[in-house]
Design goal:
Number of strands: 3
Radius of gyration: 24 Å
Strand order of the largest sheet: 1-2-3
Number of helices: 14
Oligomer: single chain
Helix content: 55-70%
Structural class: mainly alpha
Largest sheet: 3 strands, antiparallel
CATH topology of the largest domain: hpI Integrase, Chain A
């Protein structure tokens, strides 16, 4: 089989493997598939069109070195290694190869990643700058409060359905990563905002027939895209004079951080966020530690007093 055709065939099978056997999220499938396509393009251009079945450990190292020259951060480099390892694990499991050339690849060491968060006053400032006279004003307000009030991922928000929300019992059904379902309680404050949006504003968007159950709609009556939600949140932050690196995920981080700061148990937060492992949720304890350090630096008399040594 021609190398180009073989790459494409195996790329497609790999996508199916990620989706149906590994039950990966759409984002993971997209990222891993894109990385394998980059490897295929590199093989064609720089490795004499070598087949994916004949590629060597040295070839993979050469590819990773070339990609790293593009000044990508360590997290992206780590994902490339993860993508390649997963691809060759798939080939090994399917008996396409008998030796895994990616076995010895090592990802760069990652430092502790502390996500950006917003203070409660910053979130208040964002809501205060919303122009409710505009058609999308209340919808955007509801989006912000749903992200912050329920700790949703952006993919969960845009897929949220009217039938997922139990207004009477005050909870929503969320289908998270890998199709894992969780039930998130809705506070009275957030519930009233969602109720008002559904009863007084949502019908203004004339839902398309296939989107009659989707909660958040664009001006054409279709489901909002991830990109559109990013734009909405960034615009809100800009109008509020916030110059941090803001995304919809920042509101999810803020949700978790504020719960922890106010005494919520870490395992409860894990369930609300839909984390498979408590280790993922523990990042918020590090954020709390940063706040404690700031308090010592700011308030401890030994730090405030100038010492002559």
């Amino acid at each position: 089989m021609e190398e180009k055709t073989q790459w494409k065939k195996l790329e497609k099978e790999f996508e199916n493997y990620l989706q149906f056997e590994k039950n990966c999220s759409a984002n993971t499938i997209c990222a891993y598939s894109r990385d394998v396509r980059k490897l295929a393009a590199f093989a064609k251009k720089h490795l004499n069109g070598v087949s994916p079945l004949n590629i060597t450990y040295e070839n993979l190292q050469e590819f990773l070195r070339a990609q790293a020259k593009g000044k990508c951060n360590e997290r992206t480099q780590a994902r490339w290694v993860s993508s390649i390892k997963c691809f060759y694990k798939f080939l090994l499991e399917e008996d396409y190869i008998t030796h895994n050339p990616s076995h010895l690849l090592e990802a760069p060491k990652l430092g502790l990643y502390l996500p950006d968060t917003l203070s409660f006053s910053e979130i208040e400032r964002m809501t205060e700058k919303i122009d409710f006279s505009q058609k999308n004003g209340y919808r955007n307000y509801c989006i912000l409060e749903t992200l912050y009030g329920c700790g949703l991922r952006v993919s969960e928000l845009i897929g949220l359905k009217l039938s997922d929300i139990n207004l009477k019992e005050s909870f929503m059904r969320i289908e998270g990563k890998g199709g894992k379902v969780r039930f998130v309680p809705i506070t009275n404050y957030t519930l009233k905002i969602i109720e008002t949006y559904v009863r007084s504003y949502r019908d203004n968007y004339n839902p398309a027939p296939k989107n009659t159950d989707i909660l958040f709609l664009n001006n054409r009556g279709a489901a909002l895209s991830r990109v559109m939600v990013f734009i909405i949140i960034k615009d809100m932050a800009y109008r509020a004079g916030i110059r941090k690196k803001i995304s919809p995920h920042t509101l999810r981080h803020s949700f978790a951080t504020h719960l922890l700061q106010n005494g919520a148990d870490l395992r409860f937060i894990q369930e609300l966020l839909g984390h498979s492992s408590i280790t993922t949720t523990e990042i918020y304890t590090h954020l709390e530690t940063e706040n404690l350090r700031d308090a010592i630096v700011k308030y401890h008399p030994r730090n405030k007093k100038k010492q002559n040594v």
